[in-house]
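Fold this complex.
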Amino acid sequence: MGHLIRYIVARTLMTVPMVLILLTIIFAVLRLMPGDPVSAMLGGHAPEHVIELKREQLGLNRPLHVQYVDYLWSVCRFDLGDSMVLQQKVTDIIAEKLGATIELTVFGMLVTVVVGVFLGAYAADRRRTLGDSAIRLYGIVVYCIPVYWLGLMLQLVFGVWLDWLPIAGRTGPRVFPSDFERTGFYLVDTLLAGDTESFFDVLVHLVLPAFTLGLTLSGIFVRLTRANMLDVLKSDYILAAESRGIPRRRVVYRHALKNALIPILTMMGLQVALLMAGAVLTETTFSWPGMGRLLLERIYLRDYPTIQGVIIVFALMVAFISLVVDIVYAVVDPRIRY
Amino acid sequence: MGAGETILSIKGLHVEFPISIGTVKALQGVDLDIVKGEVMGLVGESGCGKSTLGFSIVRLLRPPGRITSGRIDYRGRNVAGMDEKELLRIRGRRIAMVFQDPLTSLNPLFSIGQHFVETIRTHDRAVTKSRALEMAGDMLESLGISRQRLGEYPHQMSGGMRQRIMIGLALVMRPELLIADEPTTALDVIVEAQFLDLLEELRGRFDLTVILITHNLGNVAQLAHRITVMYGGTIVEVAPAGDLFRRPLHPYTEGLLASIPNIRLDRPRLVTMPGSPPDLVDPPAGCVFHPRCPRAMDVCRRERPPSVSGDGRTVSCWLYKEVP
Amino acid sequence: MNGSPSGLLGRVVRYFSSMGGKYGVEWWILCAGAALVGAIVLMAVFSGYIAPFDPYDQAAGPQLSPPGPTHLMGTDNLQRDVFSRIVFGSQTILKVSVMAAIISSLVGITMGLVSGYAGGIPDKILSLIMDAVYVFPGLILAIALAAMFGPGVINITFSVAIIYIPTYFRLVRGQTLAVKQELYVEAARAIGAGHLTILAKYIFPNVIATTVVVFTLNVADAIMIEAALTYLGLGLPPTVVDWGMDLAMGKKFLPSGMWWLVTFPGVMISLLALGFTMLGEGLAEILNPRLLER
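Structure:
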């Protein structure tokens, strides 16, 4: 167990330079690019003294290295400044939206993993059959369908034509989140409040966005799972297990899948980027009040501190998730610890 | 031997592997009987079909390989025609296997105990987990491994230890037939010798019948009662071990023995066989060995030789009308 | 005897099926991808001849009419012909995504070669930076860049190009490190070949096969990012005809069941991305069977 703890500590320390680099890149992109954020924010036609005043307020007229250090220090204090549009702290605005994004991504990921891993394992087991070909085709095609368009088509079919599911928002018109909101995860909140009616309303609203996000990413998982399973199924221990009379289904879905999931897990860290990007697009398509939609709204409003804050939070989430994935990897695979 | 009861009888077995450029005819009409209690050595160059034969017996051919015709009668029931459910009752319980590479034959994510528990409980649902672990511990101890190690994972064990665990897993359901596919190839010489001793000891203790597949004639010389020599998907000769080494009948067997150092000391030098193993997608007409055979005749190029038996041995060669 | 059309056709058919026999399904995937990409490229080149209407014509037909004989894909709220906009829209997306992939490959390959070859601390630092960018969601970075650059075809091209530099960098650097150790590179150095010669003659050719595959897959990805940016209303001025922007516009009419406005641009984006993906997959399998299995 000592090995494991040492590994976790080392891996956590490795996250620090990554976060630092990401923060620096964000700083560089948002400050050093052509086009002054302030004049861009004020619409480009503001009088000189107004721009100057705004720059003063935001501290943008100080030397760059001072701004940079100040920027890093405020991130360390979890202080992302104040919104320029509403009199609100950026951290408060983000805290309000974070739950929605996490709820969406968690359920999206769930759909991805269930669909992707199951189809991939099945295809590998039935290699070179019609089912395998169909699943491979699904994997390629679904990867090429833009997530926002899939969302629109699902809205069209299930929302407009069949009228089964709502196409926008997290709740219906008769449900008021303020009644139950605690953690920001509405499914949890409604359960905690014991409000089953609202719970089902929230669940129904989650279905289309989660499937949109999950299905688009499932293509990659089908491919990863299938390729890894094919490798694993060639292993001697698979044959050995079968020679002991273990039923094929158990051999495939226990012995092989467990081994195939480990490389998939490591690659999941890289899929986080796709998951986040997909979430931003899904939120816009479904008017889902999360971080992605916030980012876009504030870009239109040119609310510079909020834009920066949202991107920083995305960066922190990416760093955090890849850290967690690596630690889980170490816990799952007994070989890593030694 | 000779007088024992035949437990496995293979007749006219054909196995094919369809691949993109044609069909590999991996076994082309194999007949073989296995007698209770014997150690049958199955030898030949790599690609001759000896492993395919071993895997066919428990129907574990890698896709797309399949049995196209023939029978494999195990105690009167045709394994070649069994459904999945019947097969699972035979595999591991009646007929067990050990493989070439002990380093890769254990699932790296399952502890040794889990391997045993899974195997035992697959075959006997009535056994509780703790009882299964107890049985596993007894088995490990009888193989000279502490039962404390049940909780450990394969990567924590040495190669020889893993090979013994593989054997223990194969024997834990007390099967009567053990198919060992090149069990020592991956081991170093000392471990190999120990392993063969262990196999011989276990054979006595568990009343096993063993099919030992190997390209190492030294191994079979040490253990086997009878030896089957295979070439190009066919059986060329079956004989009691002593007879085979003293007086090989088939030209291929002769060549095979000649190519091994220290087996026949009267040979002046090491002889290598000319030519290369046959292309099994398009096997030679007549006797598959004729292109390499120093004593090939006209008939060998045209017709496949019949098997002739007598005096406890069988040979398939046009040189013999009867066993001399 | 040859030179006749049927003889030529026969040879072509024989060639194709022999390649199919050699490489199997991957060859047909490659062909299907090439056909898709080829068709859309032709559409972009000959837009003026194919499109029945001016894509900007705000009196091409009635408002929001469903697909029919005159308007194959219907009309939008500004009475423009959707089919003509689809045809002309192919120019924008192809231009942006292919240019972006060219820019990022040139920059990424050069940086990867030099950094990997030179090694040392600068290489370590550059790798750390590239790794960090690589794990960060490309789309979000592109959104930030596009928002900062403002709308314009060149601007969006650069926004898309920048996010793919790490992909090439990591790939090329890794291979450069591997090739650098090879005996023939050592030998070349021993006979006095200069750094530039070694890079150009020995390392680059080894790296290029994989980058061709990555380039094609990169274009497929860039297509989806371009369309995503314009769908979000970033990157292009409204005066440009673009599938992503048409999709965003069609979205407003989706609740009223006007399916054609969202269906056709989306199908086209998917088909174009699919074409490049299949091209890349086929190439990957034929050039290096192990590449995509990891």
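Chain A touches chain B at residues 127-128, 235-237, 239-248, 250, 255, 258-259, 262, 332-335, 338 (CB under 8 Å).
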